[in-house]
User: What shape does this take?
Amino acid sequence: MDGVVLRAGEGEALFGGRIVIKASFDELCITESLFPDARPGASPHFHRQHADSFYVLEGGLAVLIRDEEKHLSPGACVCAPPHVVHGFRSTSRALFLNFHTQDGGFAENLRARDRDEPGGFDSYDAEVGSGPPASDAIFVKANEGDRLEANTRVATIKIGRDELSLIEFELEPGFEVPDPHAHDDHIDSFYVLDGEADFLMGNEKLRLGSGSFVAAPIGVEHTFWNAGPGRARLINVHAPSCGFHDIFRAREVKSSTLLPSEAKGQTLPRENCAAFFAVKRPAA
Assistant: This one.
């Protein structure tokens, strides 16, 4: 399977372009949605087999988590684990990303509804306040999260669960990470928030701006960096996480045990995958 490369505005447009599917894999579905004003989104429901997460790009969302509504501004995110009742609405014009991990039939449900067919997926209507407590749900405001700083980047872990890890990266010019590598057990994807970042996807080198998206399926070589001249901000999502966020956090305080040159062209086992982000190269 080839990697996914989408520039701003590209993807599988549904409902007149209001919802755009950015990634559709068994492991995850990522959509970019635009609500032009304050309006209902989804009534209270839960998923039995997957997590449902939101990241606000512009405007505001109100996300119900069991019996409490959380208000999300740009840069905020929330994750509703399996069985936890949730719903959402926009509080103004809103642009946001929605992550279903695993897909759970969500992408096909959207396509069916776009054709005016019934659809259906791993989703069950529920009463507000019903179901298990929301203690495992994650709500992180803008500029919050587990902030990990290195010489040319800041990584902020926003969501870390088995279903996915979601990390914000702030990349200074000259930031580099691993030589080309692939994963054997999860999808690795990126959404550019601000500035321009550089990517390798398969054999193709790309420089992509705000609103662009790339995804490396299992076995596809990839990497990313920032050649400058400006700073870049992006979201990195691993689905399933395969412990990536925990490994990343642990490696932050240790010296790297594997140099990028040792892994070039390899499929990385998960214990070495995050080591690269702790590597500090001397300035050229």
